[in-house]
Every structure is written in structure tokens, then in C-alpha cells.
Amino acid sequence: MSKKVFIETYGCQMNVSDSERMATILAKEGFQIVEDEREADIVLLNTCSVREKAENKIYARVGQIRRRRRNVILGISGCVAQLEGEELFDRFSGKNSIDFIIGTRATDRIAKVINSVIREGKTKVIDNHEREDYPELSFDLNLSHSKCVAFLPIIEGCNKFCTYCIVPFSRGREVSFPPRLILQQARQLVSQNVKEIHLIGQNVNSYRPREMQDLEKFKGATPFSKLLRMVAELSGCERIKFTTSFPRDFHPDIVSAIEEYDNLCNWVHLPVQSGSDRVLKLMRRGHTKDAYMKRVERIKSSKKMIALTTDIIVGFPGETEQDFMQTVELVEQCEFHHAYIFKYSPRPGTPAAEQMTDSVPPEEKTRRFLYLESIQKKIQAKIWQSYVGSEKLVLVEGKSKKNPNQLTGHTTCNKVVNFEGDERLVGQIVKVKILEAKNNSFLGRLV
Ligand code: SAH
Ligand code: SF4
Ligand code: F3S
């Protein structure tokens, strides 16, 4: 009988995508992917290490699984797996032992690793080596997070080494995937009725493939803006979104591309992290406040309304009240449609954790977090309120989790809209009148 695998995913879209592709490989090798942990013979935790809390969650989760299921085969993949490597076997020993570890660049070999545990009876199997080739980009839509929205990685890794960030260590150096493979996969997704493709990567606009000749015939000032046009020209591709954009490498031609093609969505996620040049320098972000504002001006002056969102860290080592107030000021100026705000969390091995003192006390981090959040909430409420009464095109993605009588989906500007409607609309793009703005979603009515 085929062995059952349960995969639990933490962290960013890259991890979601890795899980989808690992599930596909395992299913091809004869495993059955299950959605209930209690049925599983094998549990795989695909982990995140971006902040301490994310990492601690994994340690607690291993203990919990072992208490419930002493004999299940338990493995760890993702960023914690890559960072800790073999040491995880020591950390989880005795009652809490784990059976295998898969690094972030070894995901294509997941079936081989699991088979060596179950068929050959090996214990403590680890594969955290580099890839032998570009990864397999295709995946089974039945095993993915959505049947109509798909994540398509175009670049993996990160070369930026922002001083607070663990990602360059857990994901390795930037590797851009060949345009040919990306196009092939995008075509396949469109032929399977996928309505929205998200081009994903830690920094999509750092895209720089070795196979530049594939992009020759596309207009564009950078390889990424050429790639955007390449995907946009694919017939039947209704919506294209991309994330994340790195401010230093965000070329204005990206905005031009969005203006030229109806199917390039009007949403840009551009993490600023801080509004203080002093802190930005300590973070080694490679941009100043002014340089960031220039990008913002180009986005805001576009003839298309483009929704701008961001990430911000409060309480970075050495951040003074004055630095913080510069972030507040920037938030007021930029009028973000949404901002993910994080309290700085020292990550072992990063320059900020090793060489700088975590000088802002926890209560002060919390105060700055709450204050900035309250400012952003007010700005956001005003922007979101301006949508009320308008009609938006919504891609219906499924039933709402909170209210099963409602359907849920996203606008082109990446806002969630909930509304009543027939489940048969799932997978279609429909017109919805916006009735009410909630904190992070809209309530609407089908037109
Ligand atoms: N590649 C993206 C984001 C990567 S991680 C970028 O360059 O913006 C997602 C977000 O987590 C970051 O934008 C940052 O705001 C936050 N983050 C990363 N490391 C962090 C840390 N050590 N403490 C708190 N927040 C962190
Ligand atoms: Fe981390 Fe900076 Fe790379 Fe983003 S660009 S993943 S924040 S090091
Ligand atoms: Fe987390 Fe790794 Fe993504 S640290 S945010 S899962 S790249």
C-alpha cells in the first residue's frame, strides 16, 4: 500500500512553492499526499527561520507530533533544515528524534531521501547539497494551494546580505531560472486554466539569467522587465503578479511594462524596512530614503492606479526615537495600501546579530510596532474606504474560511474581497461591487 505523506508549510511563498513541487514529486513516486496529519505515515515540516518566533514554532511542533505519533517518520525541510543541518539530529534526539533532513536546494531529491528511510531502513538521512540542475518548475495543480492561482519561481536565493536577514544563508546565492523553462511552465499553467500567475523570488527584479538570448526579442531595460513582457505576451494569461521587489534594483521600466499590458497587475510590493538613512545604512539595504521615494513617485504617477505595499522592521539595533519617527514620516508620505510591520529579531550568524547590540528593549519595540501600526491603519482605512461603491474584477478562489456562505478572491491590486455567490464561480473572474471596507478585506456584492 502506498505510504501517506503530510506536508506542513511555514514561511514565504517560496516555501509554499517548494512544498507543491515536493508533493508532486512524491505523488509521482507512488506516495499519497494527505491533508490530515493523523492519517500520515510520514510528516514533513517545511520550515521558516526568518524571525526567532518562526523557528521556535518548529521546535515546539516536533515535540507535539512525537507525543501524538511516536512511530511516524518525521522530516524537516526549508530554511531551518538548511541552516542547522546535521545539528538538528542532536537537537532532536531520544523521544523527539527526527528521521531526515532536506536542504533548500535538495527538494528535487525528496523521494530519494524518504525512500532511503522507509525502504533501506536508514536512520538520520540528510541531503543538504546543491542542485545538480535547475529545479523542476512544474507541479500538479491538484496538490497546490489553489487551482486558479499559481506560484512560479523565477529566481532563488539572495545575494543582498541585508545585515538582519538569514535568507542569504538559508537560500544560498541567487540563481535565475532560464526564460525558456519559465515560459514553458507559464504556458502549461494557462492551458490548465490557471487565471493568475505569481512570479516569485526573494528579489524578482534581480533576475539575471545566463540564457539572455531567450529574452532578446522582448523590449525592456532590464532582464526582469523583459521577462515580464515575455510572460505578459503569452496568450490566455489573464493576470500576472510578482513579488518581492528589491528597491535598489527596481527599474522604472517595470512600471512602464505594467502600463503597457492589461494583464500585468497593478500591485507592487516594495519593502522599505526603514525611513532613516542611518538605519538603512546599518541594514545595508543599498537604498536611501530619497532613492526609495523616487521609485514610489514613479509608481504613484503611473497612469494606472498601482497599489503599493511594503515591509518594515522596527527596533533595529541602534534605532533611536528620531530614526523611528523618520519611518513614521515615510509611512505617512507613501500612503501604502498595506504594510507588514515586524519587530527586529536577531538571527544568529547575521552581521546585525553578531556585531551589533540589540539595543531597543522589547517593550519599546512593541510600543513602536503598535504606534506605527495605528498610523498605517488610519492611512489604509482612508485608501480602502475610497474603493467603496466602485466595481472591481475579482478572481474567485474558493469559499471564505471565516464564512462558508461567502466566496473569496483577490482584485488585480491584490486585495481580498468576500461576497455571496455560487461555488460554481470558483476559478472565474467576476465583477463585484465593493460595499464595505474591513481591516484587511472588502465585503462586496456580485454585479
Ligand atoms: N526579500 C524580501 C523579503 C525577505 S523576508 C526583501 O528583500 O524585502 C520578509 C520580511 O521579513 C523582510 O522584508 C523584513 O521586513 C522581515 N525580516 C527579515 N529578517 C528579519 C529580522 N531578523 N527581524 C525582523 N524582521 C525581519
Ligand atoms: Fe533578506 Fe535583504 Fe535578501 Fe530580502 S534582500 S531576502 S531582506 S537579505
Ligand atoms: Fe522564511 Fe526561508 Fe521564506 S526564512 S521567509 S521560508 S526564505
Q: Residue share in helices? A: 25-40%
Strand order of the largest sheet: 2-1-3-4-5-6
Query: Can you summarize the main beta sheet?
Result: 6 strands, parallel
> What is the CATH topology of the largest domain?
pyruvate-formate lyase- activating enzyme
Computed Rg: 22 Å
Question: Mean pLDDT, as a whole number?
Answer: 97
The number of domains is 3
Total beta-strand segments: 19
Annotated CATH homologous superfamily of the largest domain: tm_1862 like domain
Continuous helix count: 14
Strand content: 15-25%
State the CATH architecture of the largest domain.
Alpha-Beta Horseshoe
The residue ranges in which pLDDT falls below 50 over 5 or more consecutive positions are none
* CATH class division of the largest domain: Alpha Beta
- Cofactors, ions and other ligands in the entry: S-adenosyl-L-homocysteine, iron/sulfur cluster, FE3-S4 cluster
How would you describe the shape? globular
Class by alpha and beta content: alpha/beta
Distance between the termini: 49 Å
